[in-house]
What we know:
Layout: H1 8-15, E1 18-25, H2 31-41, H3 47-59, H4 75-80, E2 87-92, E3 97-102, H5 110-117, E4 122-128, H6 135-146, E5 151-157, H7 166-182, E6 187-192, H8 216-222, E7 236-237, E8 240-242, E9 254-258, E10 263-265, E11 269-273, E12 277-286, E13 289-291, E14 293-295, E15 299-304, E16 315-318, E17 326-335, E18 341-342, E19 346-351, E20 354-368, E21 373-376, E22 380-381, E23 386-397, E24 410-414, E25 421-427
Parallel strand pairs: 1-3, 1-4, 4-5, 5-6
Antiparallel strand pairs: 2-3, 7-16, 8-9, 9-15, 10-14, 11-12, 11-16, 12-13, 12-15, 17-23, 17-25, 18-22, 19-20, 19-24, 20-21, 20-23, 24-25
Amino acid sequence: MTTTTGTGLTEQLSATTLLRFATAGSVDDGKSTLVGRLLHDSKSILTDQLEAVEAASLKRGQEAPDLALLTDGLRAEREQGITIDVAYRYFATTRRRFILADTPGHVQYTRNMVTGASTAELAVVLVDARNGVVEQTRRHAAVAALLRVPHVVLAVNKMDLVEYAEPVFAAIAEEFTAYAASLGVPEITAIPISALAGDNVVEPSANMDWYGGPTVLEHLETVPVSHDLASCKARFPVQYVIRPQTAEHPDYRGYAGQIASGALRVGEAVTVLPSGRTSTISGIDALGEAVDIAWAPQSVTVTLADDLDISRGDLIAPSGSAPATTQDVEATVCHVADQPLTVGQRVLLKHTTRTVKAIVKEIPSRLTLDDLSQHPDPGQLVANDIGRVKVRTAEPLALDAYRDSRRTGSFLLIDPADGTTLAAGMAGDSFAAETVQAVDAAADDEGWDF
Length: 450
């Protein structure tokens, strides 16, 4: 394990930071083995877990423990030797805490990668050194770009099978970096590794003295968490209205929730959306104590100077930087349900704590991740499809563009009949230029035509 360096203040700050990251790659590129190696070599697994893996490996005729079994927990995953569902793992070093999402590599599980990477600040994309960049590698880079993941690590795995050759690594790194940069990925770090042998995962490799960069764990421990929520525009979705109406607090009216981004201050002028009414923050309670300032992602109760009609789903934002409201939402969505999403379909749209009725007015295009081509007028989106949609809502929403805020620029489309999640949406433009023709919206005569 790498050791903490730098000043005492830096050490204190880094020890409290949390990094969410996801792994992705083609089938058999070694994602689960990499995760297992990270957990094993960083001493983040319990003795009984390791003993269980060793016993399972022996039953399969393997002399060394199969570290992939630490994450492939489903019976079908163990039988097929592949990752099917997103496996979340929590571990920590002396420098940082981590939440890891090990996502599947099959193309039919694209929706699972979207789920795992939607909250990630970093994505580790694995490539088999023998195969180089393949179609699924490009798909994963495209998904990371769509989701605006700030940092991408290219882990060129199985270097032991190409005799640790630097030219092999250099060629793969150059090809992937050029492709990911063209999609708008802001930062790409390439690391040559062997997850099976442990080269450059936690400890530096003696077999690749030509490489002078960080190990995977060292990079994870030191990469800046650049999406500082506290520095963004303040957004406070109201989750619950507190009205004790007791003798002690006869007129108390507080608005509870989690600050999605930015910071709130006592005395600050705010606007309540979608009503547009204004007031001033008169108090902030955090963990039962009055404070002058609170920031994301703290859960607080806010009181205002004026008695306004505010309920769950309303958004409180500083008056100088309040988002515009709209009933016409244009977005990129990843369809996650087995049933298709069609033009004219009635849905529920959930944005932060607000859920409203909506109609899918248009599906202008479907994106092919293989070559980033746009197929116009598909008529519907099926499971794992990514496409553009235009949705009309029954009530105004205070949506940010996803490029400005991953928290308040995202939403879900839900089946009103059974509550099934249909699609995950990202408001605003995607990374690719679009030249598609509009689709005439289907008429609706059942009270959902907004």
